[in-house]
C-alpha cells in the first residue's frame, strides 16, 4: 500500500504527504527541499513550522536551509537551475522562479519572525510562554533542569513524613509496601510512577479523587472476594481436607517419589493453614503448577479401580490450588495498587508543589500543559492571537518517536487549523523502524495512525523509500538478512553513487572458557605479581578485543572515504563510533581504550566529571575550602598541577618523629624550610595564595587564576601521553565553561559550586558531557544507541557485552492506544509472575512492543555505519550477536576495508604564538566614605542652590545620599550665612556685578569638561571663585592653601582667558568660614 | 517613525564627528559660546564623548559648551515633583494582584514585575485609559483576561500621575514652557527608538526653534559604510546585482582591512580569538575599544584572559545583585535563620570574609568544627551544634555565639516589607557584616539597594510571611544590578544599546549568533501584531534599532565579529546580519571576510613535570605502621600502592555530614544489635529469644530518622526469626557464646622493622566442647552483603584473607554469617585452609617492603573501580 517515493508529489508545495524513510535515505534533504519549495511558492517564512526530535537536528536543519539559500543567492544561473530541477520544479516554471529564488536568502533572513524550526518541547515551551495566564504558569517560568534532584528531595521528605505518621493512610500504606516489597522495590515503583505521571494525569483527568477512580477501574478485573483469606477458606472446607487425606493415602501406594511425598502431604492436615498450604504447594504441586504426571505406573497399578477417584480428587485439589494462587495474586495486585497509587499520587503532587514553590516547570509539565492548551476549546482561539507567527505549513520529522499525548494535541490543532485555512499543508517524515523512545513514551504506532489521519483529512499519500545514501553496498547487503523476518521490513538498496564504495563486516562472538578461577601456585606476592585481570566474563574479553582490533587492525590501516574531500584516507579514531545499548559496562570499554592509548569521548554518566583531570580540579577546589581533608590534599599534590612525587607525599603525610603535625599543617611548616623540595614549596605557595581569593572572587575568576598561575594546561600536556592530550585539554576547557555557567546562577559560592558538581556527577540526565577536543572529533565516540540517533560514522562497532534485556518489575502498566485520548488502563504491577490473568493481554501487547523496539534499536545501531560494521558480544548470551551471526552465515562478506595507501602524516600542530599586549587601565582604590568630604559637598551644593542666579538642587535628596540628613539644616544655614557676609557681597549681590555663573561648564581644548564653581563678571574684571568648603581646609594658612590649589586655579585662568579677551581675570578661594583668599597675580 | 524634527543623515566614519562639524559650521557666529544650544545624546557617556569630539573639532583653547544631555536627564533636571518609587509601585500592584483569584497559583511578584514594565510602556506610548477599549476593538473578547489585568493595573498605578512616565512627560512640558520665552535650537543624534511622549515633545520644540536630528547615512564616499548599508539596509535590487554594483565601484573590498570574523568551535576558542584581537589592537596603538557583550559568558572569559596581561576592562554591563558573592552571604544567612542552620549554609557563611570579624582568626577553628560536624553527621540544628561546639572547644567560639544570638533575635512573625528589611539589617549588624560589606563595592551596592527599598517602602503596610518576603527579596536582588566602577580603562565591556552614540577606535562584537543578534524579544502579554496595532514598539523596531547601533559602532574603526559556531556538539547558526554580510561580500568580491587568528593565553610558566608513570614507591622501615588489621593486609594484596596510601601515608576519606545513611550504617546497626543480644545471655526459647532480639532492635533503630528507622526495622524484622532459628540450630550443636566485638592481637617481630602487632576485632567468638572433649572455637563475622560473593571469597582464601587472618589470630575456626537473607546459616572457612601460611605472608611482605620492595600500583579493574586512591596513583594517565 505504500507507494515508492515520488518527489514530484512529496515536494509539491500545495500537497500534503507522508514519507516513511529508511535510515540514511536523506530525510533532511527532503525536509529542507520542501521548505525551499514552499518559500518559492510564496509561503511567508513565518508560516513554516518544522518540528523535529532533537535540538541538534533542528539546528542542523536551519544550517542546511541557510546553506542552500546561499547557493540560490550566489551561484550562477546554471547551478541554480539545476538545484531547482533536482527539487522537481517543472522546467517551465524555473525561469519565472529564478528571481524569487535568488532573493530568498534575504527574504528569510530579514523576516520577523523567521521560519520556526524546533522540537516538540521547544514548541510547547514557546506556546506556554505566550499563554502563561491560560496555563496558570508564572511569568516565563523557567525550565527546571535538574528534575531528578528535586524529585529525590521531595521523595525523601515525604517518606520521612509518612514514616513519622504511621497512623495516617500514607503511613500505613508505606509500612505495608515496605513489608511486601522491600525498600529497593518500593523506590523502583515510586520512581516508575513518577515517570508515568503524564499518563496518570491523562487517565484520571477530570476525576476529583484520582486514586479512587483508578482503583474503581481496576477492581472489576480482579477476583470478586478479596477479603476472605483463600487459604483459610480452603482448609475450612472439609471436602478439601478429605481429598487431601485420600490423595495422601493413595500416594503411599505409589512409586518411590510418590511414597516420599505422601507423608508430607498427610502431615499438612495437622499444620496451621498457611504452613499446610506451603506444604501442598511444594509436594502436591510443583513450582506453583500442577504436575505433568498425575500418577506413576506403579500407582496406577496399585490403585486399580480407585484410580478414578484418586484422579478426580487430585484434579479438584489442583484446580482449587490454582484458583487459590490466582486469588492470592489478585490480592497482592489489589494491595499493591491500593497503597502504591495512594503514595505515587501523593508523591507526584508533592513534586508539583515543590516546582510551583520555585516557580519552575519541567518538560512533562510543558508537554501536558501545552497539549491541554491546544485542545482547550476555551483557550485555543486566543492562543492563535498570541503567537507571532501564523503557521500554515507544518513539517514533521522523526515522527515515529511522537507520543500519543503529543499526537492528541497536534491532531486537534490540525483539525482546527485545517477548518480555518484550507491551504494548510502537512509534510510528515519518519521511520517506524527507528522508533526507540518507548522509555520516553514514544509510540511507533502513532506514525501509522497519523499517516492515516493525514490521508483522510489532508489527502496525503504515504510514500516509502528504501534506498540509503549512507551505507555502502556491502553494509546494505549485510543488513537486509538481519531484518528480513521483521514485519514490514523491505529490503534496502544502496544509492548508485556508492556503487564502488568498499565495506567491511565482522561478527565477533566472544567465548569464555568457564575455567575454575585461576590456578594459584602457592601464595601470590603482590609486590611482584599483580592479580591477573579478570577475564572470566565475556565483557572483559570483549573490551580487550575491542581495543586491540582497533589499535592493530583498523586505525591507520583501513581506508575510509573522507566526508569532505571524498578521498580515501587511513581511518582515524574520530571515524569510529562505538555503540552500547546501556551504559552499564562503558567503564570497561573506556579502560581498555585508555590502556591502548586510543583517545575517546564517552557518554558515561557525568562523562566530564569522571575524567581524571576534572576530578583533579574539583579536588583542588575542595582542598582550598578544606585543606585538612588529607585525601583531597594528597590527590591535589599528585595531580599535574603540582606533580609532587611519592617521596613528597611521604614527607607531608608519613609518620615522622620530627613533626607532630601532618598534612596541610606540615606542608606549610615544610614550605618554610630551606631544604624543602621545590614542588612542595610551589604547592604551598599557590594553595595559600588561592585560599585568600575564596569568597571574594567568583568561581570562574578563581579558576582562571588557577589555570593561569598554576600553568595548568602546559603541565597537563607535559604529564599526559600524547594521544590523550587533546581530550584532556578539551576537558579542562569544558570545566572552565561549567564554572562560567554556574556563576550566572543565583547566589554562587565555591562550596555551592562543588556541591552542585557532586550532585551533577550522579545525575545521569543533567551531567555535563566531556569537552569536544579542538581538532574536530578525533576521538572514538563511545555512546549509547539512543545517543547515536541522527549520527553516522565510517566505522561503527556495536558492543554487546553481556547486556540483555530484563523485563521491568515494580512498575506501571499504562497501555495507550495511539489514537485514544488517554491510556485505556492504569495500574501498578510487581514481580513478573504476579501480574494476574485479567491484565495479561496488555502485558502481551507491551512485550510485543518491547520486542519491536529491540529490533528497532538494532536497526538504528547497524545503520549508523557507512563502511565498516563490527558486531561483538557474548557468544552465548547476546541475542543480537547471535542474530547477526546467523544472518551472515555463509555470506562471505568482506572483513577488512582496503588498506589505505599511505599512513597519514599527522598534521603538525604548530604552537600558536602567545598573545601579548601592553598593560592598560587601572584599578581604583575603593572610595572611602569621608565625613569631611561629605559635608564639604553638601555645603558646596547649598552655595550653588542659594547663590544667585540660583540653580535648584534637591538638597534633601543629596543629604540623604550622603547620609547627612541631620546636618542639612545646620549646613544650609551656614551656607546662607556665608553668602550674607558683607565682605563677600560684591560676589553674591546681583546689584554689584554684571553677571554671575554658578558651576560654569567649560570645555578645554582636550575635550575635558571643567566646572568652575562661580564666575563673576564685573565691568572691569572677571573673578573666579573656587569653593573649598570642606572643614579640613579651615585650619590651614593662606599660603599653604594657595600653594596647594595654584595649578588648578591657573588652569581656570587660562581657560577663562580664552573667553574674556579684554578683561583681567582674578581668582580666589572661598572657605566655609567666609575666608576669601585671592591668588596673588603672577 | 514619524519625523518629529528634521531627520537628517550624515556620512563619515563617525556620527559624533559629523554632528560636531555640522554644529560648528551652523553656529560659527556664536563661538566660543554655544551655551544656548542643546545637544541631545543617547546617554551620558555618549555626551562625554561628544563634548570631547566637539572640542577637538573646534580646535579652540576653550568653549562654553552647549547643553549636552540625554533627554531623560534634561526632563529630570527641571521636574519639581517626585515619582513614586518603583518598589512601592510593585508592592502596591502586588497588593492588587493578591486579590485576583482567577490567577490561581501564578507567582504574583513575578507577574507584578512584568505588568509594571508593560504599564510603563503603555504610559510612554500615551496609551492607557483607552487601552482596554482598543484591545476589545481589535480582538473582541478573546483577550479578556489580559485586558482585565491591564485595566486593573492601570487603575492601580497610572492614573494619578505619579508614575515615572507621567513625571517624564511633565518634565518635558516644563522644558517647553520654559523655552517659549527664549526658544533655542536643538540638535540630536543616535537617539534610538523614541516614545510617543518624546516624539510629541520634539515636534513641539520644532515649532519654536530649529530641531535637527541626525542618523548615520550611507554616504557613498565611505565605501565601508556603504557596504554595510547595502548588506543590512537593502534587500532590493537582488543581492547579486547590488554586489555587482558595489564591486564595480570598489574593486577591492573595503571590509578586508577593517573587519575579521571568528566562527568559534567552542567558547574558549572564541574568548581566545577576541583576546588576541584586543592584544593586537593594543599593539598597534589603539586605545579605546568597545567589547560588546552579546554573550555574557564569553565576554567574562575574554575579560579574564585580558586580565592575565594586565589589560583591564571596565565592565559597564554590571551584575545582577543576586549573582554577587555578597548576596550569597545574605542568602545563606537567611537560610540559616529560617531552617535552623543547615550545616552547608552555615559553613558557607563561616568561610566568608564578609562577617564575624577577621576570617584568618577563626579559620582553624572553623575547619576543626567542620571536621567534627562531618564525623558526627550533624546536618543542622542549633542545639546539636552547640553541644558539639562545647565538646570541641574550651569555650563557645565567639563566631558561633554571634550567629546563634543573631538568629534568636531575628523575629519571624508576619510583618511589612520594611520591617523585614530592618530585621535583616539589625541581624547583619549583629553578625558584624555591615562594615565588611560596606568595604566591598558589590556589598555596598547591595546594602544601598536594601536601604533604598526600606526607605521607599516605609509606608507600605501589607504584611508578609518570612517565605513571601524572601521571594520578594530574591526578586529585588534579581532586578537590581551592580556595576563595578573600580576599573578605569579605555577598554570597556558594554552592551549594544549602551554603546549607542559613543566613540571608540575599535570594536569587538562577542556572541554574534542568531540567539543574540538581534536579541529575541521575550514573549510578553501581547503578540507582536497586537503590539503593533497598539502602537507599542515591536520586534522589528528593535531589530532596526540594533542594526543601527551596530552600524554606528562598526563605522568607527576595526572590528571583530565572533560567535560560537558550535555549542555543545550542536551547530549554532550565526546572526542573520553576519550571514547577509558574508553573502554580499562573497557575491561582490568572490572572497570571504578574513578570519581572526588566535593566540595562546599567557601563563606563569613553571618547571614542567615529567611524563606521568605507574608509581612504585619504596619506603623506609620507620615509615611503616606498627599495627596491621586484616583490612590493611587485604589492601596490600589488592594493590600495594593503595596500601601505601591508606596504611603508610595513613590517608582516609572524610565523611560528609549530609550523606544519607547507607548500607554500611545498616550493617553497623545490626552489628550493635547482635552484640547486645548475645551479650545479654539470651534465652534459648525461640519466642523469648525473638522477643528480646526484637526489643533490642527497636531500641537501636529508635534513634534513627523516622523513615530509615521504619525501613530498616521492617527489613530486619523479616530476617529475625530466621536468625534465631539459625542460632538455635547452632546452639543445639553445642555452641555457646564466648565474646563479642573482641579485640584479638598477635605481636610479631619482623626483620628490618622490629616489633609489630597484627590485630583485628571479631564480631563474635563461640565455643563448645567437641566430641573428643577438645575445646573448639569459631570466630563469626557478620556480613550484610550477598552470600554469593562470600562463597566466592571462601573459594580462594589466599586472596580474600580476612577470615583466615581472624582464624589465625584467634586460633579458631572461622565463618561468615550472612544476615541479609533467609535462611540464616554460617558459611564456614574450609578447615584445611593453611591459615598460618596465609597470615604469615603479611609479615613476610612487610619485611620485603622494608628491604626495598616497591609498592606498585597494580590493582585490577574491579578494585580500581572503587579505589579512593585513583587520584594519587593516576591510573589512566600513565605512559606505556
Ligand atoms: S586505582 Fe587501582 S592501581 Fe590505583 S591505587 Fe587504586 S587499586 Fe591501585
Written description of the protein model:
The complex is a heterodimer of chains A (1082) and B (880). With 1082 residues, chain A is an alpha/beta fold. Chain A contains 43 helices and 25 strands. In chain A, strands 1-7-2-6-5-3-4 form a 7-stranded parallel β-sheet, with helices on both faces. In chain A, strands 10-19-16-13-15-14 form a 6-stranded parallel β-sheet, sandwiched between helices. In chain A, β24 (1065-1071) and β25 (1076-1078) form a beta hairpin. The two termini of chain B are 71 Å apart. In chain B, strands 7-15-14-8-13-9 form a 6-stranded parallel β-sheet, with helices on one face. In chain B, strands 18, 19, 20, 21, 22 and 23 form a 6-stranded mixed β-sheet that branches. A 5-stranded parallel β-sheet of chain B has the order 1-6-5-2-4, with helices on both faces. In chain B, β22 and β23 (827-828) form a beta hairpin. β21 of chain A pairs antiparallel with β3 of chain B. The complex binds iron/sulfur cluster (SF4). Residues 639, 641-642, 857, 859, 863-864, 867, 869-870, 873, 875 of chain B line the site of iron/sulfur cluster.
Keywords:
heterodimer, A: about 1100 residues, alpha/beta, seven-stranded parallel beta sheet, six-stranded parallel beta sheet, 43 helices, 25 strands, about 50% helix, about 10% strand, globular, B: about 900 residues, six-stranded mixed beta sheet, elongated, disordered N terminus, binds iron/sulfur cluster
**Largest interface in this structure:** A-B, 175 and 197 residues
Largest sheet of chain A: 7 strands, parallel
* Tertiary shape of chain A: globular
Spatial strand arrangement across the major sheet of chain A: 1-7-2-6-5-3-4
Uncertain stretches of 5 or more adjacent residues of chain B: 1-5
Determine the structural class of chain B based on helices, strands and strand pairing: alpha/beta
Number of helices of chain A: 43
User: What is the strand content of chain A?
Assistant: 5-15%
User: Which value, in Å, is the CA radius of gyration of chain B?
Assistant: 39 Å
Report the average pLDDT across residues of chain B: 88
Radius of gyration of chain A, in Å, reads 41 Å
Mind describing the biggest β-sheet of chain B?
Answer: 6 strands, parallel
Instruction: Work out the helicity level of chain B.
Output: 40-55%
Quaternary assembly: heterodimer
Distance between the termini of chain A: 108 Å
Unique bound compounds: iron/sulfur cluster
Helix count, DSSP H or I runs of 4 or more residues of chain B: 36
Annotation, overall tally of beta strands of chain B: 23
Amount of beta strand of chain B: 5-15%
Amino acid at each position: 500500500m505504500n507507494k515508492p517515493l515520488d518527489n514530484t508529489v512529496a515536494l509539491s508545495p500545495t500537497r500534503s504527504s507522508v514519507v516513511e524513510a529508511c535510515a540514511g535515505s536523506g530525510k533532511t534533504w527532503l525536509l529542507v527541499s520542501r521548505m525551499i519549495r514552499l518559500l518559492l511558492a510564496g509561503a511567508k517564512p513565518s508560516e513554516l513550522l518544522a518540528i523535529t526530535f532533537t535540538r541538534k537536528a533542528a539546528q542542523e536543519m536551519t544550517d542546511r536551509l541557510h546553506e542552500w539559500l546561499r547557493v540560490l543567492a550566489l551561484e550562477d544561473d546554471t547551478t541554480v537551475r539545476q538545484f531547482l530541477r533536482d527539487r522537481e520544479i517543472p522546467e517551465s516554471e524555473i525561469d519565472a522562479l529564478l528571481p524569487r529564488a535568488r532573493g530568498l536568502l534575504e527574504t528569510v533572513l530579514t523576516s520577523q519572525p523567521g521560519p520556526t524550526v524546533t522540537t516538540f518541547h521547544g514548541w510547547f515551551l514557546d506556546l506556554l510562554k505566550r499563554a502563561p495566564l491560560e496555563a496558570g504558569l508564572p511569568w516565563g517560568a523557567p525550565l527546571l533542569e535538574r528534575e531528578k534532584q528535586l524529585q529525590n528531595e521531595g521523595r525523601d521528605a515525604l517518606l520521612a513524613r509518612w514514616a513519622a505518621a504511621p497512623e495516617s493512610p500514607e503511613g500505613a500504606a508505606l509500612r505495608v509496601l515496605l513489608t511486601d516489597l522491600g525498600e529497593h522495590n518500593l523506590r523502583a515503583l515510586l520512581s516508575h510512577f513518577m515517570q508515568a505521571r503524564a499518563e496518570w494525569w491523562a487517565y484520571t483527568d477530570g476525576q476529583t479523587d484520582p486514586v479512587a477512580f483508578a482503583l474503581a477501574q481496576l477492581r472489576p478485573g480482579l477476583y470478586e472476594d478479596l477479603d476472605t483469606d483463600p487459604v483459610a477458606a480452603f482448609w475450612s472446607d472439609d471436602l478439601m481436607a478429605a481429598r487431601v487425606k485420600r490423595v495422601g493415602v493413595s500416594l503411599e501406594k505409589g512409586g518411590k517419589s510418590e511414597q516420599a511425598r505422601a507423608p508430607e502431604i498427610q502431615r499438612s492436615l495437622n499444620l496451621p493453614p498457611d504452613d499446610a498450604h506451603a506444604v501442598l504447594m511444594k509436594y502436591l504441586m510443583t513450582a506453583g503448577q500442577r504436575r505433568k504426571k498425575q500418577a506413576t505406573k506403579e500407582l496406577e497399578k496399585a490403585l486399580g479401580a480407585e484410580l478414578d477417584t484418586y484422579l478426580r480428587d487430585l484434579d479438584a485439589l489442583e484446580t482449587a490450588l490454582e484458583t487459590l494462587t490466582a486469588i492470592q495474586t489478585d490480592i497482592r495486585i489489589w494491595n499493591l495498587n491500593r497503597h502504591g497509587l495512594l503514595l505515587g499520587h501523593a508523591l507526584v503532587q508533592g513534586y508539583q508543589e515543590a516546582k510551583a514553590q520555585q516557580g519552575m516547570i519541567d518538560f512533562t509539565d510543558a508537554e501536558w500543559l501545552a497539549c491541554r492548551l491546544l485542545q482547550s476549546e476555551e483557550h485555543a482561539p486566543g492562543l492563535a492571537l498570541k503567537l507571532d507567527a501564523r503557521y500554515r505549513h507544518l513539517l514533521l520529522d522523526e515522527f515515529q518517536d511522537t507520543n500519543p499525548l503529543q499526537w492528541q494535541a497536534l491532531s486537534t490543532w490540525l483539525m482546527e487549523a485545517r477548518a480555518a485555512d484550507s491551504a494548510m499543508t502537512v509534510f510528515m517524515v519518519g521511520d517506524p523502524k527507528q522508533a526507540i523512545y518507548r522509555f520516553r513514551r514514544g509510540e511507533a504506532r502513532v506514525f501509522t495512525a497519523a499517516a492515516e489521519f493525514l490521508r483522510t483529512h489532508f489527502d496525503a499519500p504515504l510514500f516509502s523509500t528504501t534506498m540509503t545514501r549512507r551505507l555502502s553496498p556491502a553494509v546494505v547487503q549485510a543488513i537486509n538478512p538481519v531484518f528480513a523476518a521483521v514485519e514490514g521490513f523491505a529490503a534496502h538498496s544502496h544509492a548508485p553513487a556508492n556503487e564502488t564504495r568498499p565495506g567491511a563486516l565482522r561478527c565477533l562472538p566472544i567465548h569464555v572458557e568457564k575455567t575454575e578461577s585461576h590456578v594459584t601456585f602457592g601464595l601470590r606476592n603482590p609486590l611482584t605479581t599483580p592479580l591477573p585481570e579478570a577475564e572470566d566474563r565475556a565483557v572483559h574479553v570483549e573490551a580487550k578485543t575491542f581495543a586491540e582490533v582497533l589499535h592493530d587492525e583498523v586505525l591507520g590501516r583501513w581506508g575510509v572515504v573522507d566526508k569532505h574531500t571524498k578521498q580515501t584516507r587511513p581511518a582515524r579514531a574520530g571515524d569510529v563510533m562505538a555503540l552500547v545499548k546501556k551504559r552499564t559496562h562503558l567503564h570497561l570499554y573506556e579502560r581498555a581504550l585508555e590502556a591502548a592509548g586510543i583517545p575517546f569521548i564517552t557518554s558515561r554518566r557525568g562523562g566530564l566529571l569522571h575524567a581524571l583531570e576534572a576530578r583533579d580540579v574539583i579536588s583542588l577546589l575542595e582542598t582550598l575550602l578544606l585543606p585538612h581533608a588529607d585525601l583531597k590534599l594528597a590527590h591535589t599534590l599528585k595531580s599535574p598541577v603540582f606533580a609532587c612525587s611519592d617521596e613528597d607525599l611521604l614527607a607531608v603525610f608519613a609518620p615522622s618523629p620530627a613533626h607532630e603535625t601532618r598534612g596541610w599543617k606540615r606542608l606549610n611548616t615544610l614550605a618554610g624550610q630551606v631544604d624543602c623540595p621545590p614542588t612542595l614549596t610551589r604547592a604551598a605557595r599557590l594553595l595559600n595564595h588561592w585560599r585568600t581569593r575564596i569568597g571574594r572572587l567568583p568561581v570562574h575568576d578563581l579558576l582562571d587564576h588557577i589555570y593561569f598561575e598554576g600553568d595548568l594546561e602546559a603541565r597537563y600536556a607535559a604529564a599526559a601521553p600524547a594521544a590523550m592530550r587533546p581530550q584532556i585539554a578539551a576537558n579542562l576547557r569544558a570545566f572552565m565553561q561549567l564554572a562560567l555557567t554556574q556563576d550566572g546562577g543565583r547566589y554562587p559560592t565555591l562550596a555551592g559550586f562543588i556541591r552542585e558538581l557532586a550532585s551533577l556527577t550522579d545525575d545521569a540526565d543533567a551531567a555535563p558531557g566531556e569537552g569536544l577536543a579542538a581538532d574536530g572529533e578525533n576521538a572514538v565516540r563511545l555512546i549509547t544507541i539512543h545517543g547515536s540517533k541522527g549520527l553516522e560514522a565510517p566505522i561503527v562497532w556495536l558492543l554487546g557485552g553481556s547486556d540483555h534485556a530484563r523485563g521491568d518489575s515494580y512498575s506501571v502498566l499504562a497501555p495507550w492506544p495511539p489514537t485514544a485520548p488517554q491510556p485505556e488502563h492504569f495500574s501498578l504491577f510487581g514481580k513478573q509472575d504476579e501480574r494476574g490473568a485479567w491484565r495479561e493481554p496488555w502485558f502481551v501487547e507491551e512485550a510485543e512492543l518491547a520486542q519491536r523496539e529491540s529490533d528497532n534499536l538494532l536497526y538504528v545501531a547497524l545503520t549508523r555505519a557507512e563502511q565498516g560494521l563490527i558486531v561483538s558480544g557474548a557468544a552465548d548470551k547476546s541475542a543480537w550477536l547471535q542474530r547477526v551471526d546467523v544472518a551472515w552465515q555463509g555470506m562471505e562478506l568482506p572483513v577488512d576495508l582496503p588498506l589505505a595507501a599511505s599512513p597519514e602524516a599527522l598534521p603538525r600542530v604548530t604552537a600558536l604564538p602567545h598573545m601579548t599586549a601592553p598593560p592598560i587601565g587601572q584599578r581604583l582604590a575603593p572610595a572611602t566614605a569621608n565625613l569631611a568630604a561629605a559635608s564639604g559637598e553638601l555645603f558646596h551644593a547649598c552655595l550653588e542652590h542659594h547663590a544667585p542666579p540660583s540653580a535648584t538642587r534637591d538638597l534633601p535628596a543629596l543629604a540623604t545620599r550622603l547620609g547627612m540628613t541631620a546636618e542639612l539644616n545646620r549646613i544650609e544655614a551656614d551656607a546662607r550665612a556665608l553668602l550674607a557676609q558683607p565682605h563677600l557681597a560684591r560676589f553674591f549681590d546681583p546689584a554689584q556685578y554684571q553677571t554671575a555663573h554658578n558651576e560654569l561648564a567649560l570645555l578645554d581644548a582636550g575635550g575635558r569638561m571643567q566646572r568652575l564653581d562661580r564666575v563673576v563678571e564685573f565691568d572691569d574684571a572677571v573673578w573666579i571663585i573656587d569653593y573649598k568648603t570642606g572643614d579640613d581646609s579651615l585650619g590651614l594658612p593662606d599660603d599653604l592653601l594657595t600653594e596647594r590649589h595654584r595649578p588648578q586655579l591657573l588652569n581656570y585662568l587660562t581657560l577663562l582667558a580664552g573667553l574674556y579677551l579684554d578683561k583681567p581675570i582674578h581668582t580666589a578661594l572661598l572657605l566655609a568660614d567666609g575666608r576669601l583668599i585671592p591668588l596673588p597675580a603672577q | 517613525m514619524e519625523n518629529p524634527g528634521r531627520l537628517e543623515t550624515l556620512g563619515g566614519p563617525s556620527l559624533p564627528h559629523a554632528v560636531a562639524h555640522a554644529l560648528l559650521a551652523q553656529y560659527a557666529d556664536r563661538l566660543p559660546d554655544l551655551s544656548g544650544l542643546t545637544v541631545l545624546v543617547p546617554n551620558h557617556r555618549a555626551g562625554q564623548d561628544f563634548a570631547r569630539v566637539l572640542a577637538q573639532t573646534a580646535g579652540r583653547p576653550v568653549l562654553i559648551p552647549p547643553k549636552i544631555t540625554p533627554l531623560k536627564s534634561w526632563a529630570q533636571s527641571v521636574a519639581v515633583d517626585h515619582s513614586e518609587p518603583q518598589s512601592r509601585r510593585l508592592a502596591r500592584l502586588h497588593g492588587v494582584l493578591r486579590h485576583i483569584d482567577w490567577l490561581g497559583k501564578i507567582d504574583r511578584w513575578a507577574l507584578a514585575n512584568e505588568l509594571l514594565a508593560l504599564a510603563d510602556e503603555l504610559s510612554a506610548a500615551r496609551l492607557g485609559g483607552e487601552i482596554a477599549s482598543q484591545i476589545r476593538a481589535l480582538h473582541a473578547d478573546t483577550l479578556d483576561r489580559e485586558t482585565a489585568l491591564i485595566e486593573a493595573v492601570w487603575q492601580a498605578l497610572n492614573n494619578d500621575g505619579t508614575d515615572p512616565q507621567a513625571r517624564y512627560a511633565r518634565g518635558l512640558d516644563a522644558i517647553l514652557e520654559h523655552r517659549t520665552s527664549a526658544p533655542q535650537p536643538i540638535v540630536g543624534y543616535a537617539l534610538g527608538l523614541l516614545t510617543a511622549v518624546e516624539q510629541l515633545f520634539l515636534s513641539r520644540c520644532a515649532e519654536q526653534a530649529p530641531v535637527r536630528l541626525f542618523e548615520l547615512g550611507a554616504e557613498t564616499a565611505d565605501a565601508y559604510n556603504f557596504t554595510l548599508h547595502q548588506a543590512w539596509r537593502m534587500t532590493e535590487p537582488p543581492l547579486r546585482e547590488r554586489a555587482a554594483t558595489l564591486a564595480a565601484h570598489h574593486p577591492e573590498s573595503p571590509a578586508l582591512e577593517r573587519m575579521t570574523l571568528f566562527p568559534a568551535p567552542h567558547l574558549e576558542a572564541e574568548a581566545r580569538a577576541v583576546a588576541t584581537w584586543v592584544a593586537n589592537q593594543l599593539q598597534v596603538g589603539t586605545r579605546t575599544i568597545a567589547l560588546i557583550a552579546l554573550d555574557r559568558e564569553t565576554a567574562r572569559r575574554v575579560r579574564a584572559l585580558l586580565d592575565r596581561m594586565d589589560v583591564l576592562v571596565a565592565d559597564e554591563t554590571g551584575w545582577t545583585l543576586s549573582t554577587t558573592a555578597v548576596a550569597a552571604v545574605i542568602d545563606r544567612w537567611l537560610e540559616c535563620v529560617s531552617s535552623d542552620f543547615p550545616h552547608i549554609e552555615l559553613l558557607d557563611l563561616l568561610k566568608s570574609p564578609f562577617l564575624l570579624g577577621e576570617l584568618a582568626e577563626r579559620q582553624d577553628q572553623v575547619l576543626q568544627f567542620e571536621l567534627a560536624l562531618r564525623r558526627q553527621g550533624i546536618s543542622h540544628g542549633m542545639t546539636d551544634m552547640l553541644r558539639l561546639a562545647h565538646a570541641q572547644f574550651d569555650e563557645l567560639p565567639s563566631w558561633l555565639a554571634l550567629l546563634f544570638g543573631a538568629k534568636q533575635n531575628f523575629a519571624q512573625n508576619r510583618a511589612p516589607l520594611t520591617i523585614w528589611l530592618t530585621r535583616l539589617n539589625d541581624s547583619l549588624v549583629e553578625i558584624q557584616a555591615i562594615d565588611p560589606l560596606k568595604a566591598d563595592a558589590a556589598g555596598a551596592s547591595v546594602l544601598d539597594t536594601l536601604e533604598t527599598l526600606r526607605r521607599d517602602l516605609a509606608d507600605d503596610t501589607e504584611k508578609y510571611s518570612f517565605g513571601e518576603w524572601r521571594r520578594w527579596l530574591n526578586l529585588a536582588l534579581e532586578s537590581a544590578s551592580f556595576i563595578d566602577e573600580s576599573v578605569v580603562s579605555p577598554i570597556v565591556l558594554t552592551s549594544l544599546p549602551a554603546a549607542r552614540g559613543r566613540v571608540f577606535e575599535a570594536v569587538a562584537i562577542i556572541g554574534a549568533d542568531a540567539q543574540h543578534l538581534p536579541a529575541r524579544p521575550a514573549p510578553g502579554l501581547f503578540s507582536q501584531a497586537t503590539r503593533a496595532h497598539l502602537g507599542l514598539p515591536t520586534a522589528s523596531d528593535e531589530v532596526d534599532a540594533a542594526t543601527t547601533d551596530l552600524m554606528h559602532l562598526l563605522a568607527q574603526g576595526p572590528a571583530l565579529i565572533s560567535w560560537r559556531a558550535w555549542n555543545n556538539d550542536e551547530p549554532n547558526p550565526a546572526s542573520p546580519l553576519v550571514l547577509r554580510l558574508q553573502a554580499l561580500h562573497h557575491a561582490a568580491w568572490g572572497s570571504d571576510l578574513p578570519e581572526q587568528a588566535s593566540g595562546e593565553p599567557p601563563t606563569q610558566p613553571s618547571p614542567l613535570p615529567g611524563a606521568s608513570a605507574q608509581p612504585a614507591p619504596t619506603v623506609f622501615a620507620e615509615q611503616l605502621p606498627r599495627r596491621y588489621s586484616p583490612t590493611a593486609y587485604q589492601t596490600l594484596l589488592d594493590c600495594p600502592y593503595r596500601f601505601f596510601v591508606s596504611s603508610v601515608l595513613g590517608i582516609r576519606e572524610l565523611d560528609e555530614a549530609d550523606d544519607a545513611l547507607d548500607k554500611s550504617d545498616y550493617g553497623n546497626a545490626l552489628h550493635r544489635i547482635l552484640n547486645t543480644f548475645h551479650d545479654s545471655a539470651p534465652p534459648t526459647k525461640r519466642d523469648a529469644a525473638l522477643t528480646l532480639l526484637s526489643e533490642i532492635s527497636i531500641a537501636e533503630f529508635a534513634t534513627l530518622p523516622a523513615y530509615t528507622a521504619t525501613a530498616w526495622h521492617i527489613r530486619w524484622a523479616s530476617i529475625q526469626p530466621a536468625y534465631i532459628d539459625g542460632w538455635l540450630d547452632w546452639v543445639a550443636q553445642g555452641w555457646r557464646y564466648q565474646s563479642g566485638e573482641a579485640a584479638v592481637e598477635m605481636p610479631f617481630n619482623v626483620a628490618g622493622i622490629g616489633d609489630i602487632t597484627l590485630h583485628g576485632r571479631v564480631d563474635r567468638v563461640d565455643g563448645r566442647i567437641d566430641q573428643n572433649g577438645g575445646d573448639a572455637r569459631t570466630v563469626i563475622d557478620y556480613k550484610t552483603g550477598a552470600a554469593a560473593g562470600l562463597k566466592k571469597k571462601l573459594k580462594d582464601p589466599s586472596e580474600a584473607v580476612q577470615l583466615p587472618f581472624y582464624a589465625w589470630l584467634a586460633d579458631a575456626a572461622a565463618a561468615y554469617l550472612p544476615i541479609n537473607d533467609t535462611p540464616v546459616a554460617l558459611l564456614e572457612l574450609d578447615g584445611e585452609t593453611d591459615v598460618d601460611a596465609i597470615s604469615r605472608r603479611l609479615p613476610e611482605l612487610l619485611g620485603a617492603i622494608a628491604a626495598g620492595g616497591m609498592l606498585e600500583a597494580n590493582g585490577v579493574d574491579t578494585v580500581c573501580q572503587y579505589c579512593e586512591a585513583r587520584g594519587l596513583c593516576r591510573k589512566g594517565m600513565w605512559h606505556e
